[in-house]
Amino acid sequence: MALHESVLEEFGLAPLWVRRGMSVAQEPAAEAAVEQGAAALADQVARRDDSRVGAPGPLSSALAHEGTRPAMRTGEAQQADSAQTPVEARQPSQQSRAPEPPAFEAPPDDDFAWFDDQPVQSGAEARREAPEPSSIQTLDWDALSARVAACERCRLCEKRTNTVFGVGDRNADWMLIGEAPGENEDRLGEPFVGQAGKLLDNMLRALTLARDTNVYIANVIKCRPPGNRNPEPDEVARCEPYLQRQVALVKPKLIVALGRFAAQSLLKTDASISSLRGRVHEYEGVPVIVTYHPAYLLRSLPDKAKAWADLCLARDTWLAAGGVPSNAAK
Asked: In terms of DSSP H, where are the helices of the chain?
């Protein structure tokens, strides 16, 4: 049978009501009072056991009157305890108030700390991962040129001077595709300039062609790689949609891949250029002829004869595809 609150209160074991502002210094005094009350209760129990016959002790009398004595209401206990609490405890300062520890440490609703384990993307990576506002394959020439000029799809945009979109007849039968812009191309914004460009113009002239007459010239990559290094596979993948759209807009009857890198990128192969030469390949449904890059021919003059043979194969393939040997555009 549980002791009544009034009985516990007599022995100092009543619930201890402490206001929230109670300072830490008062807690030991409260604990000492509880210990003293517990000792007194133990002493009374011992005396009751020793004098089972005789007048009832204080504890027995208290238990006998348990049903008749009105219980102290919780509010009265609070008021009594509040009356015994010093004014400083009832009106604590904001600095001395001890905050109540939370039941569990849960993050607030606006705390997003659980995303700290997520991989953090740099600004450049986030920019490269951003989807295109509209499909590249739906752009016309002007919109495609503007998209390339403002392109930030890969890291090459960070060090370029100019993008190199392409040049020539946009309705041409012949489409020449090189690797990537060099230093001169990056500075002028046009493909195949300088000594390599002059050699290419001479090669076209031998076929009664010119870069602005029935010929369109472009590159696999539209920005210069630093130090003229080979483009990385991800750079090729991000830039290829521009070239695919150029091919779709030009609708050429023939493509000439200039150099090993351009041939491997277009044909999706790691084969050497010597093994790719002399055969007709295909890119986006268009016949492809592989030959050496003009810059390579400047360093290896004996291979100019091989390049001429490649151009003759290209001309025959073009004629077989319905090309007309004249300077008129399609």
From this structure: 5-10, 27-50, 58-64, 74-84, 87-90, 123-129, 141-149, 183-188, 194-206, 233-250, 260-267, 273-276, 294-299, 304-320
